[in-house]
Each structure stands twice: as C-alpha cells, then as structure tokens.
C-alpha cells in the first residue's frame, strides 16, 4: 500500500506524486502521455498537472492508455487563469480537458487572482464547490506566502487543504512562518522541487553527505539500490509533506516508486537532515515565494 497523507477534509492523498509540469514534459502532450503511462505502470498513484503545463488532456489519456482505473489514481490540477466572471467556465474546462473531476484543484500562485482580490477569488471558487460544479473536489493553493494565506483564511468557509510550494531542507528557515500557518489550520504542505538540494544546488550543500551516508545504510539493510535522492524523498514524506517529483527515466521512476517500500528513517536522521538544512537558504523557483516575503540572512552553502 502506498503511503498516504490525510487532508483536513478526510481524503487520503498518496504521499508521492509524479508531475508532468517540469523538464521535457511541460507543455508537451506526447511525452506527458508516454511517460505518464510508464509512471503509472511502474506503480505511481498520483499525477500532478496544471492548466499552465498544457498536460491535462495527456494526464487523462495516460490513465486511460495505461489501463488504470481513475479511482485508483489521485490527480491534482492547478490553474484558473480566468477573470472572476469566467471562473466557472474555466473550471469546467479543467474537468473537460482531464475527462474527469480532479481530486484536488489548486490556485497556481497568488498572482492568479487580480491584485488585492485573493479573498474574493477564493470565495468564488468555494461557490463552485457549493453549487455542485466542484462537488467532491478538494481545494488548495500553491506558492501562497503568509500574507496570501491570511487573506484566504480570513474569509474561508472551506479552508485550503494544501499549499503546494518548493519545499526541501534549504528553504525550511524561510518557510517557517508559512509552515506555522499550515500547522494552525491543518493545511498539508505539498513539496515541489523536493530534489533541488541534490539536483540544482551547485555542490549539493551540507546535507548531501548525510543523505549519501543514510543511502548507504539503507542499501545495505534492504539489499536494494537506494540513492541520496530516494532518502530526500523519504525524509519529505516522513515530515508529513506530500512530495511531488518527476522523472522521464524508467530507472528513476522505479526508484520513486521504491521509496514507498523503504523502511522509515530514524528520528535522529530526520532531525540531522533538518537541522543541517536550516542553516542554508537556497531556492530554485524564486519568482513567487521571494516576492514581498523577506528571505533569511543565511549562506547558500556552508
Ligand atoms: N506549483 C508550482 O508552481 C510548481 C512549480 C514547479 C513544479 N511543480 C510540480 O512539481 C513537479 C516536480 O517538480 P521538479 O521537477 O521541480 O521536482 P524535483 O523532484 O526537484 O526534480 C525532478 C527531477 O529529478 C530528477 N530525478 C528524479 N529522481 C531522480 C533520481 N533518483 N536520481 C537523479 N535524478 C532524479 C528527474 O530527472 P530525470 O528525468 O533525469 O530522472 C527530474 O527532472 C513538476 O512536474 C510539477 O508537476 C509545481
């Protein structure tokens, strides 16, 4: 059974997701279908797509062509590039493109609503749940900073169940005010870019040797090939955070699926990764979270 995380509305989201919005997949239908099928056949149970990625049709197609039952696969979409008066039509378009209602629908970033209209936009989205258009669909946000979350929570009849943002050990110090709001309101953190420390940081930074050491221990104990990337994903989901990663390589897709079968990290290991990561600030996707949300005075590396 895949690890799941329970959302505040009671639904269980598979803790590991495969996204079709990055690398060679973003904006390209055919690879999103081809690798979507590969991912599903390998055992992925959660696909992350978006209006922006132009991969919603491909997501539905991949599920169909893989012979999977939609009910067994969690699908998140994001979007809503519409003006408020066109929101209902936009939402219907999301559903039409996928061929089903998504399990979770996110506002892609705080700049989707017009300036100053974050609360109003959320209210309109809630109305679509209440009028049945989005019945059964969980609602969430993405890249929401403390001020954005507060604007929504001040008016929410339905609280966002998740906030999807770049999350890994090197943004923990910066994200603390966001994570505090999540904890207070039962909002689950969803990580995109969870492998940034290993893939995008120039040296890997101070957690790299720790992850490699733990990968060595797990490889020895399980007899499986466990890499530092797998340890970082395991750390993420053991923090209670949904990890949305991706790959177009069969071997790496299989490793993502394998993370679910690995034994838990020890509490000491989880703490060591976290405490070391907190001493650094390094973010890959800066355009939303670093605007009007002061970054900590920390080095990018130690
Ligand atoms: N809400 C937002 O604004 C937002 C922003 C960005 C992303 N996202 C979502 O999050 C998804 C993932 O984002 P991301 O690409 O930034 O995630 P990531 O997990 O940080 O990086 C994914 C990359 O890791 C590589 N990889 C995976 N397993 C590996 C392994 N075992 N060893 C070495 N490399 C490995 C893959 O490359 P290979 O193909 O070479 O394996 C892939 O390109 C996106 O597709 C999208 O759905 C959302």
UniProtKB/TrEMBL annotation:
Keyword Oxidoreductase attached: yes
Keywords carried by this UniProt record: NADP, Oxidoreductase
Residues covered by the NADP-dependent oxidoreductase domain: 26-275
A Pfam cross-reference name: Aldo_ket_red
InterPro entries attached to this UniProt entry: AKR, NAD(P)_OxRdtase_dom_sf, NADP_OxRdtase_dom
Annotated source species: Kwoniella shivajii
Identification of the protein by name: NADP-dependent oxidoreductase domain-containing protein
Family assignment from sequence similarity: Belongs to the aldo/keto reductase family.
